[in-house]
Write a structure and sequence with these properties.
This protein is α/β, with parallel strands linked by helices and about 290 residues long. It has two domains: about 15-100; about 100-290, Vaccinia Virus protein VP39 (Rossmann fold). Helix content is about 50%, strand content about 20%. The protein has eight helices and nine strands. It has helices at about 15-35, 40-100, 115-125, 140-150, 165-175, 230-235, 255-265, 285-290, and strands at about 130-135, 155-160, 185, 190-195, 200-205, 215-220, 240-250, 270-275, 280-285. Strand 6 (about 215-220), helix 6 (about 230-235) and strand 7 (about 240-250) form a beta-alpha-beta unit. The longest helix has about 60 residues, at about 40-100. It is elongated, with a radius of gyration of 31 Å.
């Protein structure tokens, strides 16, 4: 593949050649004017003035372009700082409400962001679920587990994870916060799952065969977002009438397509898109569908 710079036209070469030609002609006319005829000198002076004008115009253009680039960089930096500030406020709120025994670990790029965790915690505290199931463990496991513990109503969380190392790390975090009686981990390696257009890599069904009457379903796995489609087909009949589904990564095209497909194939469910850093889709049954159950 060619370097990116080789495919971009060099827009500044043309003005350089023009200025060089004008300067060369002006010097030539000045020499001719001094040696032969003063009229050539006058033409050379005009050419020199034109060259100075072109140089000045090029300097102004470059300065303007440079200032515009700096302004753009500051705008991007300001947007990043604002987004980071919002995440910090969400994290501070989570810590104040949940009061974890050990500090939250560092948020990695693939971890659930604090704004998503805020929606999960709000759903747990307001809806008071008896059973929460999540696909993909991590920060969401800790946040939901702490919220269930805070309620003290006997609710529990079943966390299904395909990565054994990641599951072990999350388990240590959960145990450090005294949540072992609230959170149950299930290791489910990815397997071929038959869908209409072929196969997808989805969690081993044995990990959730005994699961029923789920009040809150959290979908943040597998890592391949296209392969999250089976979550609703597999759990639609396992969810309670008033169940809520919260999904991360709805801004990404692959998962946005999954959500659109759910809307088409399961019209009894409505989708609400929430403004979070990676996008959050929240699904609930429509009123008419709840009434018929």
């Amino acid at each position: 593949m060619k370097p990116a710079s080789s495919s971009k036209p060099n827009k500044s070469k043309a003005p350089h050649w023009i200025m060089a030609c004008v300067l060369g002609l002006s010097v030539l006319f000045l020499i001719l004017g001094a040696a032969l005829d003063p009229r050539w000198w006058a033409i050379g002076a005009l050419e020199l003035s034109a060259a100075n004008g072109l140089i000045l115009a090029e300097v102004i253009r470059r300065q303007s372009s440079h200032h515009e680039r700096i302004k753009q960089q500051f705008r991007c930096l300001s947007q990043d700082q604002q987004a980071q500030h919002r995440q910090t406020l969400h994290l501070q709120s989570l810590v104040a409400v949940l009061q974890p025994k050990v500090p939250f670990p560092e948020f990695t790029p693939v971890a659930a962001a604090p704004d998503l965790l805020s929606h999960i915690v709000t759903a747990v505290l307001t809806r008071r679920p008896r059973l929460v199931v999540e696909f993909g463990s991590g920060m969401s496991t800790l946040a939901a587990g702490l919220a269930l513990q805070k309620l003290g109503s006997g609710g529990r969380l079943v966390s299904i994870e395909n990565d054994a190392e990641y599951l072990a790390a999350t388990r240590r975090l959960v145990e450090a916060n005294g949540l072992s009686s609230v959170v149950e981990f299930r290791h489910a390696p990815l397997q071929d799952f038959q869908v209409r257009e072929g196969v997808m890599r989805w969690y081993a069904p044995q990990a959730y065969q005994d699961v029923a009457r789920v009040d809150l379903l959290l979908v943040d796995g597998p890592y391949d977002m296209k392969c999250r489609y089976p979550a609703l087909p597999e759990f639609e009949t396992r969810l309670t009438t008033d169940a809520l589904i919260i999904c991360d990564d709805s801004r990404w095209p692959d998962f946005a397509e999954v959500v659109r497909r759910w809307e088409q194939e399961f019209p009894q469910w409505s989708v609400q898109n929430l403004e979070t850093v990676r996008g959050t889709a929240m699904l609930s049954r429509k009123a008419a569908s709840r009434a018929s159950q």
